[in-house]
Structures are given as structure tokens and as C-alpha cells.
Amino acid sequence: MICKEVEIINKLGLHARPATMLVKTAAKYKAKIKIKKDDLTVDAKSIMGVLILAAQKGTTLKIEVDGQDEAEAIEEVVALFANGFGEE
Amino acid sequence: MGEMTVNRFFEQKKEKLMLSLVAGESGLGRRILRPVVQRPAFLLAGYIEGFAEKRLQILGKSEMAFLDSRPPEEAEASFARLADFPIPGVIISRGMHPQDYMIRIADDKGLPLIVSGLSTDELFNQITVYLDLCFSPQITIHATMMDVYGVGILYTGPAGIGKSECALDLVERGHRLIADDVVTLRRHAGQVLIATGSPEAGHHIEIRGVGIVDIERLFGVRAIRIQKRVELEVHLELWDDIKDYERLGLEDTNTTYLGVQIPKLTVPISPGKNITAISEVVAMNHMLKVYGHHPAREFVARLQEMMKRKENLNQYLESDFE
Hints:
Chain A has helices spanning 16-27, 47-52, 70-82, and strands at residues 2-7, 32-37, 40-43, 60-66. By secondary structure, chain A is an alpha+beta fold. In chain B, strand 14 and strand 15 form a beta hairpin.
């Protein structure tokens, strides 16, 4: 299992478009991908889960990836956050 | 749960428990460390061994009467002894007014002194229920929670297996949705698991290819529930040819959440399988078991009985030389 912390840097936070990108990316991998914000843990492959995180700019999320392809999965997921989902 | 301070308790319950703060306001940040309350009669009488200082203390009629029966200096010393412990706070029941020395000591020590209009018993019960809820452990899991014929079923399984679609189908057939995708489980009263959804998600579910739909708007209030006791888990997974699935149902498999054990069934999914109908049967079968029938075991027992009878008959016929 790999754990990493990411920060949301795009202005609008984890709104519908980034959430969709994140879920689609997560769904490509077999590994279980969990996102934690405070007490709340959601499945990165579930759009409802990711949306109700309601994570705005500046929020730190913890990502936990567990499974065969975890190394590739965490790399791509972390890259999404680092690029601000291609937004400002 | 965040920190359980006296202030939080006071703000949340002041109306229901008819609370008013009479002294020691500076101590409202004190923490309640145990989900139980205590009547400090022994301590007031002078016995300090094993005093539970982490609990809220309630002074009822007998404690107050005891203090009033003592000479003033002694009563004051008794109360001071109580106030010297790092207790979260003191609540006086029945709307009884605290003596002046109590107010003075409480203000001095920054010990919240609260008066409640309720009787001691009622106060005891209500605070215990409230604190039990506040202190009950909880976890959030990726699952779908449904009420099927009144049986709380927790659906688990990998993303995309069809939990939400199953929920939609069940709602169509008159069952009720508690939460989809994000389910919070709380252990209540020691051994009951209660599931709720998140306030943010409400009763929305995502259906692949359609998007997010609002079940409450679409189907009305009869299709939803705010919370439900979890009675069993149905784990959905893709059909695996190699895996050995339960065929008879003689043995009950269990799983544990927050230390509470519930039955768990693993149901393999393959095209053309009607998971909704299976769910209804699972719920009804669970109720049968609760009512004391175990269909699988009874069936096997019946077969054995039949075989035995047949054997008896065969033996009779074999030895029948007429």
C-alpha cells in the first residue's frame, strides 16, 4: 500500500469536472484507491464519494492506493492534483 | 467526533434538558471524558477512593439534602472537595437552587455549575443516551445501504459492480434507500450498528450512463430513510469460476464492523442475474432465521429423515418373507 498527501491547487477546488477526471483515472486501475479528508474516507472510483468531499482550494487530502498496479495509479492520481486538473 | 466539551453539551442540550449555567463559565472548555454520569454521594460524605473524576457529576435531591443537613463549614468543605477534582462539571437537578458557597467555589475554580429543570432520573437517562451517541465510534465506508422489507442490508463490492443500480431497482420495487456510495456506520448502545448517509450526498445516487439522480425527488419520501440498523451485509462480486460459492447456506458467515458482528453473504454477479429479487429473498430469509427457522438446515434435516424412513421400509420389505 502506498500513501501520499496531495494539496488542491486549482482555484475552483474539486468540483464536478476535476472530480470526473479523478474518478475516470482511478477507474482505469485495479488497485483500491481511497481518499481521506479529516474523518471522511471515500472511494476514488465513486463520483458521489469524491464530490461530497467538497474539497476546496488549499485542502490537503490523503490518498491511499492498494493493489497490483498501485505504483502507476498513485503516480497518475498525484499528477492530476499537481497539475491542478489542467485548470488555473 | 470532535472534542466533547461541557460547552458543546450545554449548547446542544440546554433547551431539551432545561439547563441554565449559574457559575463557573470560564470552565466551559472542560472536557467530558466518559459517556456516563455520576452522583457523587460518597465523595460528598468523605469517601474519595475510586472517585470517577472524568464524568459529569449530578447532584440530586438526596445529595443536596445531605449537604443542607451538615453544618455550613462542613457542607462547604464537602463541595470544595468535589470541586478540587478535575471533573468536567456539576449539574443540579429538579431546578434546585445552589447554595451561595457552591456558586462562589465554582466561580473560583472555573467549574461549570449548571441547574436543570428535569428530575434526576430523567436527567440521568437523557444525558447517558446523548453521551453514548457522542462517544459511539464510527467509520465511513464505500457501500450502499438499503431497507428491504424492514431488513437493513449493506451492499459492498468494488466500484462499478452495480450497487447503485441494485439500489435503484429496489427503490422501484418499493424498498427504501438510506445512502449510496458513502455510508457512515456507528456503533450504538454497544452492539447495534446504525448506518446513515452523509448530509452532503443526501439521497442522490449515481447511475452509470445517466448521471446523478435524486431519489427523494423522483420517488418521494416513501423511498428513503435517514438511518437504519445494519442487519446483514451482501457483498457483490464478479462471478469467479474458480471460487467456491455457498451452495447450501448451512453455515452462516459473519463479518465485523466496529466490533459488531453481522451475517455476510457473498453473491456473485453475472449477466442476467436479478440481484434485486435475490436481495428480497435474502431479506426475507434473514427474517425467517431471526424468527427461528433456518431453511437450509431444515431442508437437509428433512432429507435425512426421508432417507431414514425409506431405509426402515426397505429393511422391513427385505425381511418380509410371506
